Amino acid sequence: MDARWVPYFLHRALDLRIPRLVFATPAAQWMALCEDVRQTRQRLSDLLCLWFSSPAARPLDVHDKAKFYLLPIFLSLGLDVISLDLDVFMFQDPTARILETVYSKALPLDVAATDHFDGTCLNAGVLFVRASDQALLWVLHFIEWLHKYPYGHFQNGLDAFLGHSILEPQLPDSSVLPTAARVSYAVLGTDLEYVTLAGWGGSLEKQRHQALLLHFTPAISAALGSGLAHGEKQVLLLHLFNATARRPGEKEPDARRQQMAKWKVLHRLHTNVPRWRTPCYVGIHPTVTHLVESGLYEELLA
User: Fold this and answer.
1) Domain that holds residue 84
2) Where is the Nucleotide-diphospho-sugar transferase domain (predicted)?
């Protein structure tokens, strides 16, 4: 990831007045970048930078710890959590809309996650977990599975642990998950609000305001015609960050520039909503695949 990526993401979140932002990373360089943004913007109470450096026992422990290990801590403190991948560009603060989705029922939901524009499986790029006893137990069992089953991809596990669409072969028998740890959940739809590179199905004139964010998913994009290489993904995301950033002397980013940048990207992604979504399964994580192909099989079980 380009070193510019982290401060761009954090500046964007602060410009949108995200109420509480926690950035967790295993990289000392990224921790320093976060602290620099925190001090420069003088938002000491709004942004918390956390660095962890404990060694990993499994190939994906570093990634999974960065993404999930804070969840049970915050849930135990009674704090709801929204987790965002770093390749998510926020058109606006999604907090209120996510809370509306979760708390609009007579009984609030425990978990909410995005899916795919053209696929049925869930995506952990945008994940909400409510501070409930059930959600806390669920997260603890999920984290345990992530560590014990080195072949299990976290997105397959998320889907399977919610009982959504995937039958994960690495998942223990359903009886292993206690009834108390089974949670209610909602899907955050990608047609209009939680946009991905696979396409956007709204009306540019009437529904553009509903797009909350854009997740730069690596999957093949129907709207763009082909998959994005990592370098292309960086260029597109950094261009969007730059187009919407504050200019020297501006107290706030120019609203017209932001609207134009949003219109351009949604216009490029605009397509018809698929009549049906295909089943999807992410498979084994590329990091694990590399170890298997290189003959370092035993390292997975070390």
Assistant:
1) 71-300
2) 66-182
- Within the chain, residue ranges assigned H as helices are 5-15, 28-40, 61-68, 70-76, 95-103, 133-148, 154-161, 230-244, 255-269, 286-293, 297-300
Q: What is the pLDDT along the chain (302 residues), one digit of tens a residue?
A: 667 889 999 999 999 999 899 999 988 999 999 999 999 999 889 999 999 877 777 777 888 888 998 999 999 999 999 999 999 999 999 999 999 999 998 899 999 999 999 999 999 999 999 999 999 999 999 998 888 887 788 999 999 999 899 888 877 665 456 776 789 999 999 999 999 999 999 999 999 999 999 999 865 444 444 445 667 778 888 899 999 999 988 988 999 999 999 999 999 999 999 988 999 988 887 778 777 777 765 666 65
CA 35, CA 9: separation in Å to the nearest integer? Answer: 13
Distance, in Å, from the CA atom of 131 to the CA atom of 103, rounded to the nearest integer, reads: 12
CATH for 294: 3.90.550
Is residue 60 included in any domain, yes or no?
no
Count of domains for the chain: 2
The rounded distance, in Å, linking the Cα atoms of 234 and 6 is 12
CA distance 203 to 3: 35
Closest by CA to 7, choosing from 64, 213, 21, is 21
Query: Among 170, 73, 184, which residue's Cα sits nearest to residue 135?
Result: 184
For residues 292 and 1, give the distance between their C-alpha atoms in angstroms, rounded to a whole number: 24
